[in-house]
Design a protein that fits this description.
- This protein has 3 domains: 55 residues; 178 residues, no CATH class; 184 residues, no CATH class.
- It has 18 helices and 2 strands.
- The chain has a two-stranded antiparallel sheet.
- Belongs to the otopetrin family.
């Protein structure tokens, strides 16, 4: 009877794996099947186990091969689209007679229409199929990323609105394409922003290849829009810098046939277009990063064996000195930026304005580097385990931080070589040399601090305790008067600050301070302060065209690095 029971249990165990998922079949081991009383049953069970293992392994292998093939095909599609568009943009720059800006706009309009068709199909068809979205990546699309998408999308829509208004005022000397292209751009921006806000966390399980190709086509289109925006901005900078010399020698001679009339509405459209122009480039890069995470999540099945992801909320608690020091850095930075813009754009740039500008950086960058080093040391002292779970969002954040940092580091090394080879003992040259060295150190230390913080697991117990205190405080506050609410809010803030460990307080202070510093370091170059090109030192050493190409590569990446660092530092802040 005992052997019969064992044989019966073996038969049941051999049939039970058929109901299991393919990912778990390779780990199945039938129990009670190693007894000597049933050698025939044991042999049969080992044979069936071997067949199941081999069958499931082949299924998993074919699935991985199909996934790799789909990723390869969609990647090749995006690569060819990017190369074609880059050839158009480069041809327009070097031979604007054969390939005009209108030709580039027509190509990009075709790509945007194709992307719009796929996005609408995804919204109305793919995502609504049964079992289409079984899993959602909790790490993808945090609130500040989606918020930045909406913010930059709003400014990009305003930018294209000003562009349409400016072209409509000068319709007698403007092409019809200059009205059609921004109109399609507005529709593309709004549809893409809506799509990313609602579906950036999707791990789609149907129509893998079509979804991958659609995402890669949208990524390629955004990259080409970014490339066109960057080249147009640099061309505008080049024309503006050359016109300074022309205006000094030939003052009063107007050589431009299509100029803005002396009307208020035309001036508003023109100034608004120039002011909002940098937001379009940032919108394209942010969309590319979110779309790439969606592309990595196509067909992904998230395991539920690990601890559930905790949705951290941004709360201004546990910080006092970080916001104060950061606010001081932001206020001083705005004053320096305004003074630089007034003096550098009114006439020939003065020597003292560059001294003031680089002195501000020389004071701020070492403080940021020290803060990042201290934060990295605190991370090493903390008893937090490393988060080793597969996370495409975190992997992309690390890649973008390291890749975007190459822009600032590259320009800094070129400046170091040029200044050391000329006259490093000059006052302005020594300031620029110190600025370049400090910028490299600050970028490296900040990257180490952010990447180390992103790979640390949050303290679940302390997070739960904070949620309990927060719920309790909200319950009490709802029954108090207005004056008592203010008093209780202050006491609650002091209570939460005093009950945090010194390590967590220090990490929050440092993270918040670095967030504000990176914001001001993003604002200054985004809105037109480019002393690396306007001081004339590196330009005279490398030549106009060579140094302009270096700035063209490094400056947009440096702007994107500061913006992306803000997102990484916010992640470190809320998980500290």
């Amino acid at each position: 009877p005992a052997s019969g029971a064992r044989r019966e249990s073996c038969k049941q165990s051999t049939t039970s794996p058929l109901s299991m998922s393919p990912s778990n079949l390779s780990y199945f081991k039938p129990p009670f099947c190693s007894t000597a009383s049933a050698p025939q049953d044991t042999a049969m069970i080992h044979y069936e186990k071997f067949w199941l293992y081999r069958h499931c392994s082949s299924v998993q292998q074919r699935h991985r091969q199909a996934q790799k093939a789909g990723q390869l095909f969609s990647g090749l599609l995006a690569m060819n689209v990017v190369f074609l568009g880059s050839a158009f943009v480069s041809s327009m720059i070097f031979n604007h007679v054969a390939i005009t800006l209108a030709d580039v706009w027509i190509l990009l309009s075709i790509l945007k229409v194709l992307c719009l068709c796929w996005i609408i199909y995804y919204l109305l068809g793919t995502s609504r199929q049964p079992h289409a979205v079984l899993y959602r990546d909790s790490h993808a699309g945090p609130i500040w990323i989606r918020g930045s998408v909406l913010l930059f999308a709003t400014f990009s829509v305003l930018l294209n609105t000003f562009h349409i208004g400016y072209s409509a005022v000068l319709i007698q000397c403007k092409s019809r394409v200059e009205i059609v292209f921004p109109s399609i751009e507005i529709l593309f921006i709004c549809t893409q922003a809506f799509f990313l806000w609602h579906h950036c966390k999707d791990c789609i399980q149907v129509q893998h290849n079509l979804t991958r190709c659609g995402l890669m086509l949208t990524i390629a289109t955004n990259l080409l829009l970014w490339l066109l925006a960057v080249t147009n901005d640099t061309i505008h900078m080049e024309i503006e810098s050359q016109l300074r010399e022309v205006e000094q020698r030939f003052a009063g001679n107007e050589t431009v046939s299509c100029t803005c009339p002396n009307t208020t509405i035309c001036k508003v459209f023109q100034k608004g277009y120039i002011l909002l122009y940098p937001f379009n480039t940032e919108f394209c890069l942010v969309c590319c990063s979110v779309l790439y995470v969606m592309w990595k999540n196509v067909g992904r099945r998230i395991s539920h064996h690990h601890a559930p992801h905790i949705k951290h909320k941004f709360k201004l608690q546990g910080v006092v000195f970080g916001p104060l020091l950061g606010a001081v850095a932001v206020i001083i930075g705005i004053c320096v930026f305004m003074m630089y813009q007034i003096q550098a754009t009114s006439s020939a740039p003065d020597h003292q304005v560059f001294v003031m500008f680089y002195s501000y950086y020389i004071v701020l960058l070492p403080v940021m580097s020290v803060g990042a080093v201290v934060g990295t040391i605190i991370h090493a002292l903390e008893k937090k385990e490393l988060d080793t779970v597969k996370n495409p969002t975190r992997s992309l954040d690390v890649i973008l931080l390291m890749g975007a940092a190459l822009g600032q580091i590259g320009m800094s090394y070129f400046s170091i070589v040029a200044l050391v080879a000329t006259d490093p003992r000059d006052q302005l040259n020594s300031l620029i040399l110190s600025y370049s060295v400090l910028l490299i150190l600050q970028t490296i230390t900040q990257n180490v601090f952010i990447i180390d913080g992103l790979h640390r697991q949050p303290l679940v117990e302390e997070v739960k305790e904070e949620q309990i205190h927060e719920a309790y405080d909200q319950r009490r506050l709802s029954v108090l008067e207005l004056g008592q609410e203010i008093r209780k809010a202050s006491l609650s803030y002091i209570h939460s600050y005093s009950h945090l460990s010194w390590k967590r307080r220090a990490l929050r202070e440092i993270s918040f301070f670095l967030v504000l510093c990176n914001i001001i370091l993003w604002v200054i170059p985004t809105f037109g302060a480019h002393p690396v090109f306007e001081n004339g030192l590196e330009k005279s050493f490398y030549g106009y065209s060579t140094w302009f190409a270096i700035v063209n590569f490094g400056l947009p990446l440096g702007v994107f690095y500061r913006m992306h660092s803000v997102g990484g530092l916010l992640e470190v802040y809320v998980t500290a």
